[in-house]
């Protein structure tokens, strides 16, 4: 992740500065998000009341302080957790801490937190540490169970942390739904690209508007998505449509929101030498750093070699099966064996871990019922249930709405070349910024001084421009910083 800083004197002058020491201090910071198996536990050690388990959601920053090879020390900053959101036991947890990993003869970990726990009645300090040093998941995943050290016999808290280096998860659903998280209910379609933060990233019309489909159709659906460099969104649609400029567009074609066909379905499959030229659909897609395109298909296909390409396999446009459905599910224990559950969405994390969804739900002997809309990991755990992904939208009817497209924003990616601001205009009480950069997504931050504090003034966007508001008085000095992933 790289950034560039724009300094401005409101209504007077604009100029661009190179990265400064003050702004580069954040490069060792990684934002983590708590995953589905995180819990806050309220227990009484001397009475018989039931132990209270509440889902724990939120984020924190992991800050690298020392790397001595076998001894790695991190600070934990900006803890922002909510336990039991919406329930009578809802608590807000803030604070900081430390995390140490030992990687010599055995991999061990230590975590200490100093936090404040606020509910509707009290605000109390609490200190936590881990009782077991055992590492259960490969780094950069963090899984640790913490016990309160200043608890009382009548009330002692525990925290189960399971977290990944993730900022946002963008996805689409298989069915539309009504969101009630704002003053007015909003109907969202299965063609919108939405965020687990409770916002629409791009409407379906934003995605398909340049494809030349006439008359303009408000929604063509969304089956696969990947955000490429410079904010270009690649996607597929679940239906065949006719374009005035491109001719027939099929449900297996890879499209661009900039109005062209990136690859026909037959081009993606060409090196497999399929026995049929039929369109096999396109359910998931990802571009790898070396240019290889990974994808899944909607229906099984037989290659002329006799090999069956399954709808649950991850395929490569280089003509190889990157991962079979059986390999993808090897760490799960479905009650139905030798069955292909399909592959509706995928994202390969920088560590190689695959996050994905299936077309058909199943029952797993270890984690229970798996919905088609749940986000799963190739390591064998549920990242989030479909209800967790949609929680901030507060759907009017709780249900499994499916998971058809997936893109993950993570700090764990290798850094890219610094973006370049190419235009900035101050007018009408805002600053219009345009930039060029190799990042897939961008975010604008602002500060009254180069040393900070820096505040977010835009959501993470797959765009090359933004209108940012001023946060200083006329005549005062202020700065903008552009971040990219």
What does this structure look like?
By secondary structure, this protein is mostly beta strands. The chain has 3 domains: about 5-20 and about 420-485, Sandwich (Immunoglobulin-like), CATH 2.60.40; about 25-165, Lipocalin (Beta Barrel), CATH 2.40.128; about 170-410, Hemopexin, CATH 2.110.10. It has 5 helices and 41 strands. Strands 3, 4, 5, 6, 7, 8, 9, 10 and 11 form a 9-stranded antiparallel β-sheet that branches. It has a 5-stranded antiparallel β-sheet with strand order 2-1-41-38-39, with no helix packed on it. It has a 4-stranded antiparallel β-sheet with strand order 16-15-12-35. The longest helix has 5 residues, at about 205-210. The termini are close together.
Summarize this, please?
The chain has 485 residues and is mainly β. It has three domains: 3-19 and 418-484, Immunoglobulin-like (Sandwich); 27-164, Lipocalin, CATH 2.40.128; 168-409, 4 Propeller (Hemopexin).
List strands and helices in order, with pairings.
Layout: E1 3-9, E2 13-17, H1 21-24, E3 29-34, E4 39-43, E5 52-67, E6 71-83, E7 91-103, E8 107-118, E9 123-130, E10 142-148, E11 156-164, E12 168-172, E13 177-179, E14 186-188, E15 193-195, E16 199-202, H2 204-208, E17 224-227, E18 233-236, E19 241-243, E20 247-249, E21 254-256, E22 261-263, H3 265-269, E23 284-287, E24 293-296, E25 301-302, E26 308-309, E27 314-316, E28 321-323, H4 325-328, E29 345-348, E30 354-357, E31 362-364, E32 368-370, E33 375-377, E34 382-384, H5 386-389, E35 405-409, E36 420-427, E37 430-436, E38 442-447, E39 455-456, E40 465-469, E41 477-484
Antiparallel strand pairs: 1-2, 1-41, 3-5, 3-11, 4-5, 4-11, 5-6, 6-7, 7-8, 8-9, 9-10, 10-11, 12-15, 12-35, 13-14, 15-16, 17-18, 18-21, 19-20, 21-22, 23-24, 24-27, 25-26, 27-28, 29-30, 30-33, 31-32, 33-34, 36-37, 37-40, 38-39, 38-41
């Amino acid at each position: 992740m790289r950034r560039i800083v724009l300094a401005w004197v409101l209504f007077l002058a604009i100029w661009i500065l190179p990265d400064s020491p003050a702004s580069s201090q954040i490069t060792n910071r990684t934002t983590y998000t708590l995953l589905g198996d995180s819990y806050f536990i309220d227990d009484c050690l001397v009475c018989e009341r039931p132990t209270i388990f509440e889902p724990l959601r939120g984020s924190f920053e992991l800050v690298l302080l020392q790397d001595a090879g076998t001894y790695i020390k991190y600070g934990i900053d900006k803890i922002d957790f909510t336990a039991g959101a919406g329930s009578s036991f809802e608590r807000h947890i803030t604070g900081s801490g430390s995390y140490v990993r030992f990687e010599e003869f055995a991999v061990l970990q230590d975590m200490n937190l100093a936090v404040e726990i606020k509910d509707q009645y009290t605000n109390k300090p609490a200190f936590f540490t881990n009782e077991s040093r055992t590492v259960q998941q490969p780094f950069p995943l963090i899984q640790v169970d913490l016990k309160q050290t200043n608890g009382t016999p009548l009330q002692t808290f525990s925290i189960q942390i399971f977290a990944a280096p993730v900022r946002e998860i963008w996805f689409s659903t298989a069915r539309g739904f009504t969101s009630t998280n704002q003053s007015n209910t909003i109907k969202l379609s299965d063609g919108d690209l939405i965020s687990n933060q409770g916002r629409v990233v791009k409407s379906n019309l934003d995605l398909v508007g340049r494809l030349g489909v006439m008359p303009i159709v408000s929604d063509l659906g969304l089956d696969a998505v990947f955000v490429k460099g410079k904010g270009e969104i690649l996607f597929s649609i679940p239906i065949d449509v006719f374009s005035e400029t491109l001719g027939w567009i099929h449900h297996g074609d890879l499209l661009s929101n900039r109005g062209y066909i990136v690859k026909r379905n037959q081009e993606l499959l060409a090196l497999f030498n399929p026995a049929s030229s039929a369109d096999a659909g396109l359910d998931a897609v990802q571009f790898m750093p070396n240019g290889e395109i990974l994808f899944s298909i909607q229906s099984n296909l037989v290659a002329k070699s006799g090999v069956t390409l399954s709808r649950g396999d991850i395929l490569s446009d280089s003509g190889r099966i990157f991962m079979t459905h059986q390999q993808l599910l090897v760490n799960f224990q479905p009650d139905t064996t030798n069955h292909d559950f399909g592959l509706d969405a995928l994202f390969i994390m920088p560590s190689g871990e695959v996050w994905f969804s299936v077309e058909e739900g199943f029952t797993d002997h270890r984690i229970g019922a798996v919905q088609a809309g749940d986000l799963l990991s190739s390591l064998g755990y549920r990242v989030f249930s479909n209800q967790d992904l949609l929680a901030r939208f507060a759907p009017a009817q709780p249900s499994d709405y499916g998971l058809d497209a997936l893109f993950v924003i993570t700090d764990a990616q290798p850094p890219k070349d610094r973006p370049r601001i190419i235009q900035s205009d101050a007018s009408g009480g805002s600053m219009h910024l345009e930039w060029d950069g190799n990042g897939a997504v961008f975010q604008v931050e602002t500060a009254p001084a180069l040393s900070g504090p820096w505040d977010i003034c835009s959501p993470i966007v797959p765009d090359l421009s933004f209108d940012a508001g001023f946060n200083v008085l006329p005549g005062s000095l202020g700065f903008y910083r552009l971040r990219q992933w």
